[in-house]
Amino acid sequence: MAKEPNSKDANIGKLLLLDNKNKFVDALALTQRYLQHRDDLQMRLLNLHFLLLNSKFKEAQSEYDALPKVVLERPLVKGFLAQLQLNDKKPELAIENGLVAYNSSSSLRNLIVLVSAYTQLGQTANSIALLEEHLEKQPNDQAARMLLAEKNIGTDVTSAIAQYEQAVAQNPNNYIAFNNLAYLHLKAGQLKKAKEYGEQAVSLQPDNSAALDTLARVLFTDREFDKALELYERAITDAMKNEEIYLNYVETLLAAEKTFLATRKLKQREMKEPVSIQRVAELKAKYQLK
């Protein structure tokens, strides 16, 4: 008889550590190695868990189908089923089973399944209501707060700003929240606040192209073209493939009357996205480029 690789308790301890570190590939390899030597229900459930986290839905469905009926009513397993149903574009069923899992354990993962199901159904109001209720009980859940802010961007900008402000109050290193605050205040025409938040985002992530772009757009709107270009010189690299940011850079060059360089930069990169091709045409027309 093959020797068990390690004790079950030791393996579960390793799996918990890998799960916390988001090392899902390593965790899946560990569960499958264990199951090669011993059939164990708890390890099979963990294997299903990590199959889902690795987006191996076909294998996960097979693993779920092979589970004994005695465990199918467990909230944990209902949560697994909800993820499979969500992947199969069956959001109504995913909500039904996801609620069982979430009401048993209001974890972020169970929350995200429900939010994703409501999103598939186009039920933004239900997503927002669920997130608000969740945050009343768990006000320090940063990920849930960021999700709520993102949902509010399209429906209630004031609420989105309030959520992002609370996020940075709870975590001063949350550069995404600072960057989004800068973007929202820019859209609202509040350039002073936009600049303050944008500078904080860049101070936290000095080489992040998205943060650099947001602050540069604030400076562009305030007609501080040279300062904006200094930021774009850091943001625009060979590895930076975002066409919108690249064209923001070109537009700033044109606004700064650096037409020759802007024309050269346009020739250096071929735009592939339809919206980018349209914008190139608009920039050429506006600035009378050949």
From TrEMBL:
Give the source's domain of life in one word: Bacteria
Has the keyword Nucleotidyltransferase been applied to this entry? Answer: no
Question: What SUPFAM superfamilies does the annotation carry?
Answer: TPR-like
Check the UniProt entry and state the signal peptide residues, or none: none
Per the UniProt record, which residue ranges are transmembrane? none
InterPro entries under this entry? Answer: TPR-like_helical_dom_sf, TPR_rpt
The residues bearing each TPR repeat, given as ranges, are: 175-208, 209-242
Q: What species was this sequence derived from?
A: Paraglaciecola aquimarina
Query: What high-level taxonomic lineage is stated for the organism?
Result: Bacteria, Pseudomonadati, Pseudomonadota, Gammaproteobacteria, Alteromonadales
The entry's protein name is Tetratricopeptide repeat protein
Family matches, as Gene3D superfamilies: Tetratricopeptide repeat domain
| Keywords from the named record | TPR repeat
Q: Name one Pfam family in it.
A: TPR_10
